[in-house]
Amino acid sequence: MSSTPSPGAHVVVVGAGMVAHRFVDSLLSRSDDTWRVTVLGEEPRHPYDRVGLTGYFAGASPEDLTLERSVLDDERVAFVSGDPVVRIDRGARTVTTAGGRVERYDRLVLATGSYAARLAVDGFGHEGCFVYRTLEDVERLRAFVDSRARELGRPLTGMVIGGGLLGLEAAGALQSLDVAPTVVQSSDRLMSAQLDLPAGTALRRLIESRGIAVKTGSITTRLDADRSGKVAALEFRDGSYAAADVVVFTVGVRPRDELAREAALAVHPRGGVLIDEGCGTSDPAILAIGEVANFDDLCVGLVAPGYAMAEVAATRLLGGEASFPGYDLSTKLKLSGVDVASFGDAFAETPGALDVVYSDPVAGVYKKLVLSDDAKTLLGGILVGDASAYGSLRPLVGGSLGGDPAAYLMPDGGVAAPTAELPDEALVCSCNSVTAGAIRHAVHDEGCTDVAAIKSCTKAGAACGSCVTMVKKILGTELAKSGAALSNALCEHFDMSRRQLFDAVRVSGLRTFSTVIERFGAGRGCDTCKPALASILATLTGTHVLEGENAALQDTNDHVMANLQKDGSYSVVPRIPGGEITPEGLLVIGQVAKDFNLYTKITGGQRIDLFGARLEQLPDIWKRLVDAGFESGHAYGKSLRTVKSCVGSTWCRYGVQDSVGMAVELELRYRGLRSPHKLKLGVSGCARECAEARGKDVGVIATEAGWNMYVGGNGGFTPRHAVLLAEGLSDAELLTAIDRFLMYYIFTADRLQRTAPWFEDLEGGIEGLRAVIFEDSLGICADLDAAMAAHIGAYQDEWKATLDDPEKLRRFASFVNAPTTPDPSLAYTVERGQPRPATAEEREDSRVLIAGTTLEVRR
Fold it and tell me: N or C end of the chain: smaller count of CB under 10 Å?
């Protein structure tokens, strides 16, 4: 197998998926004319990114998902699509396709992949039942949902059978199609192959908070159809039923080994072509790679081991020595808003293994590290709710953590995780088998100086992307060693930092994302640059966040100007400047809450939060509030949230200044100010500090001599006390100082950087900041003053403007085809006299408030 073939030898690849594409790329990139390649594909299209298939429902076109075309367009490759191989003649060394094409091979590579399994239950063939495997599958799914919703004239309900990685992605896809999804899992937890029970419980809470129902311990026994033959309901082993308009099966995959069986190749009894460590089969002329291959009694439906096999097979065909190391079963969930990862010996099956666990049920976070019996070697781990450490931890599996294991699990603000460098042999990118050493080689020997170059050179981060953070860290460290600096590009679409992009947009006067990316960027943007640029444009242009094409840049909350809650409903927070409100205002808020059955809560920022509003109710609620003189409180935006105050000299016998009056003035001055992160201010009327001003981004404390101004405080994972910037300021001096501080921050901070780390990173620290604001050391104060004046002059209440615009109001509908229909998945119960989301158990047999409208008893 490892002998060098004669020039011009012919390798035929059966299958044209991601692994086949990778094999051809690897083979041709390392050879001249050694091999002539023919790729025979079953699907009528170029190979595409099956891992990113869910992106189709987020707007990605088939072309967007297509893998690099140049690989199969190479003159050494003959690519045939839509003509599957139906026979292998091992004696003649030929393959025959369905279209009658006969190809003779010197080497044959089987990369036929797998097919999606369906449950062996009655009714699985009803119309409306789908699998989730190919582009054709998802195209048919979307077409059926659109047609069926129009036919029934109501929102659809969907069932996803299988609660693994793919099942959760499919549920997210259904939800994006306005289908109310339920995930049905036969075991006691979601992702049971990757997560233990506590992790599965935490994941369930996260999934249900996104409006996706979960039904565990349920085995489907039959699917029923309506009179037209379309699926209508499922029956479970316990005798219960559930209505369903569409069903998606995600119960695993089976290797496409039928060609191998018919050709009498050795096949595992449970499926898959048996291979050795060189990917060779029982026939010396045939190799098998990817999901069709069975190694060590396993077939695995992950792309990373398939890529590893592709590299091994290519190396062997070129006369080299390479061995498949076995399966890396590390996984990371690709579902927006849900952070889950599992790697290594996640279930602590190694004898003597120890668990280190961090759990925060309130925040929905569960983290576990599995260590060797001496607590020094990392064996594996599970991360739910916060998988930010995945990129750092997974490469360390099998090696020493180099410090306190708990440090890796603590949230921001805990003990810093150890920063020891990864050894060269540590695997950083499991999808493409790229080690830390390979990345260092790319930096020092190949001249790669940014993440994009690393991706191109090594393919690290080019598949699922979960290792990009670690790639960037290694890159920065290696560049620093050589005296160079790491690029601070916002993302791969903009080769500049947020600060540079802000200046570019400000100077150019461009007003839309498309014009900005056309001039200063590349591609179509991403979840990083789109919200960042939306914030920049909102600051510089003063236009409504939902105006024109920029509306599509917003994230979930800004998109509907409300805070999404755990059950899929929203909260409404009217602005109450300085916490001051009239009795008439209180009555209005109380009546709105009563009429719409909303839960009410006094917030830490001295406002009233109304929870449980449905999407289609938001305009009606805000119409009532706006008519009563209230404005948006911007609780959903990266902007000014609140200005907290005590009663000050107006009422308090200790007060020395009118703290309420100043708080009201500040809140009305800075309302709607978009920034890199949220902003909170506080004003205390004396040194007793009842408004907790030193825990705010800007804190103001009254003295007999005037106002003392503090900056850079915050709560959260990393609490900071604000630092004194100036003392004894008059009202006018205080306003000018805050104007300049906030605008300087907005002009220069990184994306999602709060004021505390921002000014700490400034040259000169707090002294340098004083010089900029009070001495105009950079000569920019006139620009800062003008920018704040422009903001104040252009301010408009976002909700009032929305109510006056029918086009903007169109987005506030629970379902596109039934705008006024309540979301049937919302259910509430009463606690302490107010509604709250019902638990799964309460939905079954307790008194609940259905869809926020009426109380009824469930029996």
Answer: C
